[in-house]
Design brief:
Blueprint (H helix, E strand, L loop, with lengths): L13 E5 L5 H5 L16 H8 L4 E8 L2 E10 L5 E8 L8 H14 L7 E5 L4 H9 L2 E8 L2 E6 L2
Parallel strand pairs: 4-5
Antiparallel strand pairs: 1-2, 2-3, 3-4, 5-7, 6-7
């Protein structure tokens, strides 16, 4: 379990935990708001399948206290950079700071104790909510595009 002590706006502790036999169904059923489906799949189940079929990505369940509130995945690129991907916060949980706490927790862990590893993520340029969140957390666009998404790197 990854626990950096961050809470959402309602005071719930946000932690990241492995997807396992007890929580995978709750993770698979996570759904974003309808207006976000241009940028994320309708259900987090797609990300779970991706991590099952890939050696690159690892899925984590995002918890707010003891409830599954989201999904995020991470991976390591050939150049040693760490990547955050596949984040979905359930529609009912949005607007409470769950996603912010999850990204902060994962980015701190991926960077390592000496912040030696670059931490990157990508988002569609039209996804202004994601752009605002990531920029506010210290991610700066690199100018590189990955497929149709803008790559951003954590500035430390």
């Amino acid at each position: 379990m990854l626990d950096s002590g961050f809470t959402d706006r309602t005071g719930r502790r946000v932690t990241l935990r492995p997807v396992d036999d007890d929580n995978w169904r709750a993770v698979a059923d996570l759904a974003p708001r309808d207006d976000q489906r241009d940028w994320v799949p309708a259900l987090a189940a797609r990300y779970l399948l991706l991590t099952m079929r890939s050696d690159v990505w690892t899925s984590l369940a995002v918890y707010a206290d003891d409830a599954v509130a989201g999904h995020v995945m991470w991976g390591v690129d050939d150049d040693g950079s760490r990547w955050i991907g596949g984040m979905v916060v359930d529609a009912a949980e949005q607007g409470r700071g769950v996603g912010r706490a999850a990204v902060r927790t994962l980015a701190d862990w991926l960077a390592g104790p000496d912040a030696t590893h670059p931490v990157r993520l990508s988002y569609h340029p039209d996804n202004t909510a994601a752009a605002g969140l990531y920029t506010s957390l210290g991610f700066a666009p690199t100018g590189v595009m990955e497929d149709d998404e803008l790559v951003a790197e954590l500035s430390r």
